[in-house]
Design brief:
Layout lengths: L1 E4 L3 E11 L4 E10 L2 E6 L8 E4 L4 E4 L1 E6 L12 H10 L2 E6 L10 H11 L5 E4 L15 H6 L5 E4 L6 H13 L4 E3 L4 H4 L4 E2 L2 H6 L3 E2 L1 H18 L3 E3 L5 H11 L5 E5 L1 H5 L21 H12 L5 E2 L8 H4 L16 H12 L4 H8 L1 H7 L13 E12 L18 E11 L2 E4 L3
Parallel strand pairs: 2-5, 2-6, 7-8, 8-9, 10-11, 11-14, 12-13, 14-15, 15-16
Antiparallel strand pairs: 1-19, 2-3, 3-4, 6-17, 17-18, 18-19
Length: 431
């Protein structure tokens, strides 16, 4: 993949323009002048402007991922802000939110400022999510107000669920004062125990310890009840089970401050995929049954699940090339995201492409309070150009991350990002 400065005047010609903010789809051009939107539709651009022929392609807003792990500071051997930015641009993402489970964690105003300042040199927008508790220990609340002032856009202890209900209540109350969402990794640690995959027939057959769907649904139900009681903004990450979907659907009818995300891998795979013992499929929460996968798809269609987030989680070869029970949880997912979700939701399940685009653009931006009117004149260009119909096979050559722990190698995907424009840079498609 090649990343370079965009031309002073650049015309994206003859594309299908999908504007998720206004819910419009039409044919036309997009004119960029000095990295900003100068015209959309019928444009009057200079004759000497550089151009990209977008015939048969879709021009839309840059994707936004509100759940990634870039590992900096502390584990730069897995990913850095800059390598994560390359991975994001390869997948069509121009804006991401990084989780706080770094080393040290993002649990102080200074650490939030570190990410914000370091991100200024990156070709995408990177927003830090601050930890809820100090050292993600679940006991002492962080300086949430000061962290917001430094740029924190939400609060989460990420992979370490807040087990204490009283602490979660306090966190929701404080976050409500700042009008920011709390994101709690929804797994009851006592019920999860040492489970490494979904508890069911397949785990029994494979002889692997199981993590029941009850571990997720019980925590989701608790957090939903607390959020309703307080009137707080709760965002439920990486929903994996039919039971959790049921609770979220019921609560959203009463509390419009609740939002939820689903990952590409929970939509694409089921627990039978783990019969290969591919450790890249070891994630938390685990990939569950085909019934759960279908329930997630229906929840996307009916709006119960608001957006798609990759939970991009890079790991070293040593972390993954071991026995399944000892392998680290997590997979990378930025580069494969669009091809995977377009295959499942649009090609297989008949979702409209415009609706999928909304799940990747305007919806996550709305959850985090980012501007979603990206085609208005004078706006800094955040654009993704994609071919929604091309069939391709995901291979290691498509990975721009510092890590390679993807389960998609050899998988047939549908739809591919060809260009990503962000912060005055353009990333050209990989092979």
């Amino acid at each position: 993949m090649k990343i370079e400065k965009i031309a002073k005047n650049l015309i994206l010609k003859n594309g299908t323009i999908i504007d998720p903010h206004h819910g419009k789809t039409y044919s036309g051009d997009v004119w960029l002048k000095e990295g900003k939107i100068a015209g959309v539709g019928e444009v009057d651009a200079p004759k000497d402007a550089e151009s990209i022929d977008c015939s048969g392609k879709v021009i839309t807003h840059g994707f936004c991922d509100i759940h990634v792990h870039f590992r900096e500071p502390g584990r730069e051997d897995k990913e850095t802000l800059k390598t994560g930015s390359r991975s994001a641009m390869a997948g069509g993402f121009t804006r991401v939110c990084v989780m706080p489970n770094t080393n040290p964690p993002l649990d102080t105003p200074e650490s939030i400022n570190f990410i914000r300042e370091k991100a200024e040199t990156c070709p995408i927008h990177i927003h830090p999510i601050g930890a809820v508790t100090k050292s993600q220990g679940g006991k002492d609340l962080t300086e949430m107000g000061l962290m917001k002032k430094e740029g924190a856009v939400a609060f989460s202890d990420d992979g370490l669920p807040i087990q204490n209900g009283a602490m979660m209540r306090i966190a929701l109350e404080y976050a409500t004062m700042m009008d920011l969402p709390v994101i709690n990794h929804a797994e009851d640690e006592c019920l999860r125990a040492d489970g490494v995959m979904h508890e069911g027939i397949v785990s029994t057959h494979l002889g692997l310890s199981g993590n029941p769907d009850l571990a997720e649904s019980a925590m989701v139900h608790r957090d939903l009840e607390l959020a309703e009681f307080i009137g707080a903004r709760l965002h439920v990450p990486h929903v994996s089970s039919e039971k959790a979907v049921h609770h979220i659907r019921e609560m959203k009818a009463k509390n419009d401050k609740v939002t939820a995300e689903v990952t590409p891998h929970h939509l694409f795979f089921n627990d039978e995929s783990l019969t290969s013992f591919n450790t890249n499929l070891k994630v938390a929460p685990p990939i569950r049954t085909e019934n759960d996968r279908k329930a997630l798809i229906e929840a996307v269609k009916d709006g119960t699940l608001d957006c798609i987030a990759t939970d991009h989680a890079p790991h070293t070869i040593e972390d993954k090339e071991t026995t399944f029970d000892l392998a680290s949880f997590g997979m990378i997912g930025l580069e494969s995201c669009f091809g995977a979700v377009n295959q499942v939701l649009v090609k297989d399940e008949g979702l409209e492409l415009e609706d999928l685009i909304g799940l990747l653009t305007s919806n996550p931006r709305a959850i985090m309070g980012f501007d979603s009117d990206l085609f208005s004149e004078g706006t800094e260009a955040e654009i993704t150009i994609l071919d929604p119909d091309v069939e391709w096979t995901f291979e290691k050559e498509h990975v721009q991350s510092r890590s390679i722990n993807s389960p998609y190698y050899g998988e047939s995907l549908s739809g591919k990002v060809e260009y990503t424009i962000s912060r005055g840079y353009i990333a050209s498609k990989s092979s």
